[in-house]
Design a protein that fits this description.
Elements (H helix, E strand, L loop, with lengths): L2 H23 L4 H58 L1
Length: 88
């Protein structure tokens, strides 16, 4: 896991803990607090799911681009090798 990933997870964890503590300490009825907590967790779950999907799509796109560059480099190397064989 890279340092950026660790920092991001740390920030997300701290934010989650802050929200949970804030909701639990709020001067509201327990039922209202639990409803808010469920809604917040549900929203975060949806948001994380969307973020995961975007990251996965970006990674797949990046892999596609990388594969294409490798194909191009291979074709270029084969072409140069063929030309060198012809010149010898």
């Amino acid at each position: 896991m890279s340092n950026k990933s660790k920092v991001l997870l740390g920030i997300l964890g701290a934010a989650a803990a802050g929200v949970v503590i804030g909701l639990l300490v709020a001067p509201e009825k327990g039922t209202e607090t639990r409803k808010k907590l469920r809604k917040t967790v549900g929203d975060w779950t949806d948001e994380l799911g969307n973020l995961w999907a975007k990251g996965r799509t970006a990674a797949e796109d990046g892999m596609g681009e990388l594969k294409e560059k490798v194909r191009q480099a291979r074709a270029s190397a084969e072409d140069k090798a063929s030309k060198m064989k012809e010149s010898v």
